[in-house]
Amino acid sequence: MSYARSEPDTEADDGPRVALKILVAGGFGVGKTTLVGAVSEIRPLRTEESLTGASVGVDDIEGVAAKRTTTVAMDFGRITLRDGVAIYLFGTPGQERFWFMWNELSRGALGAVVLADTRRLPASFASIDYFERRGTPFVIAVNCFDDAERYDPPEIRAALDVDPRVPIILCDARRQGSAKEVLVGLIEHALRSASHTRTGAPATR
Question: What SS3 class is residue 177?
Answer without folding.
Answer: helix
